[in-house]
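Anyone? Bumping this.
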Amino acid sequence: MNTCKQEIITIFDTTLRDGEQSPGASMDIEEKIAIALQLEKLGVDVIEAGFAASSTGDFESISQIAKNVEKSTVCSLSRCVESDILRAKDSLKYAKKPRIHLFLATSPIHMEYKLKKKPKEVLELAIQSILRAREFCDDIQFSCEDACRSEISFLQEISLAAIESGAKTLNMPDTVGYRLPHEIGEIIEQLHKVVQDKAVLSVHCHNDLGQAVSNSIYGAMKGARQIECTINGLGERAGNCALEEVVMILKTRKDIFKQYGGLDTRINTKEIYKTSKLIAEITGIRPQPNKAIVGKNAFSHESGIHQDGILKHRETYEIMKPSDIGIYDNENLVLGKHSGRAAFKDKIMQLGFTLNDEELHVAFNRFKNICDQKKIVYDEDISAIVSEEITHIPQIYVLESLQCSTASNGAHLAALSVRKNNGEVIRDCALGNGAVDSILRAIERVCQVSGKLLDYKVESITSGKDAMADVMIKVVFEGTNNPVIGHGKDLDTLYATAKAYIQALNSFERMKELLQDKKDLRYGGV
Ligand code: KIV
Ligand code: ZN
């Protein structure tokens, strides 16, 4: 019989709200829905889907997420402003478990210079806003913005008033990432003395000094029962507390957390890697190779001594198993040339995808093509093909063919044909300074657009000379300031490049409609 007591930490994911404030990390509605569904699969308790009053696009994506998510609580951020509260409430109309998240600054510097309000006025505004939000929603979270530079006595006073007005969760952000772990511990301990079990205390730590994860863990050790975090530690400036790190700390160091009530989470850690890859793919922001838990090198041992030790006994140099976060060995060879459609369908289900008949047909044909060209087909190859096929971005342009001629010392030529969604096929060619330049120019001629390339990355999906390339392109097309991202995957890197640029163009077309009314308020005013 397991008699170990367990205190479950609520995992509040803000990748879609605070994470989206990472420079260049904007996502469109379909992408946000895909992320929310994956977060639900990961076992996140609360998904902060956006800030409803900030833009029509945010409002719409919160509503869609609220409609689609079944198990996780869906949360909408709101300033302590009547019109924001109403937008938040409306955005959550279809949520099975809605939460309104109100925030108001409580530090002397924010109250004086940003809000231009006295503490008494801030207290009153918090009370009135919580009471108003409670008229629509039972689950209210109140955040003291810049809590960790606020007077502890004021935090205690406003926390008790917030509870009295109906708030169930009190969040204490280290908004500027200033504090060290023991200081956060002290703040939470002081608050816990007065709040006790009348509300859930929460930590929300930014990473400006690289302490976000340690600070959050320390907060939990001193009584916080909600941790706010993002996948891959995405977020404004140096980012937020990384979900995968706090979760794996709690799982790996159970020996320590036993003394703190057996802290744990409901996260299905086997979904961590997949979630991290999805976010990296959509935002174009990949974790650095040495990033804890999800970095490319997090589980690879270069040194001979380490490799030898691992082979003899895994735990000599490994404190977690790659499979704990859903990474399986490359030797996990899957299907080959002779595999049939049924085996392929079975495999993609095992990998967690659901395809309709048409998507399955296209993916299977691509798989067969790849089998003709590549000796070993890994799970990762199959995931790459399938994820490319199930894009929900309308395919206005599709690449039909590409021909490149390159010369080491001269102009490069790309000739291509693109099919438009009205059936028209357009062909053209262009010269450029290098293969990539000529391909992008040819696409621009064919599709009559002009773009400024912000980023271009090529990664191999698996190891081996015959590995597929994953090309990521970030571009700003003429007519907006918003960058879009495109991915292309193929055995031929140049073909993958053309596909990535065309995918970015399709996202741009999709985004154009949404951008028309996107006025971005973010954190101005109250
Ligand atoms: O960092 C912060 O203070 C925030 C609040 C809006 C919760 O993100
Ligand atoms: Zn924040």
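Late reply, but here is one note on the structure posted above: The chain has three domains: 10-283, 341-390, 397-515.
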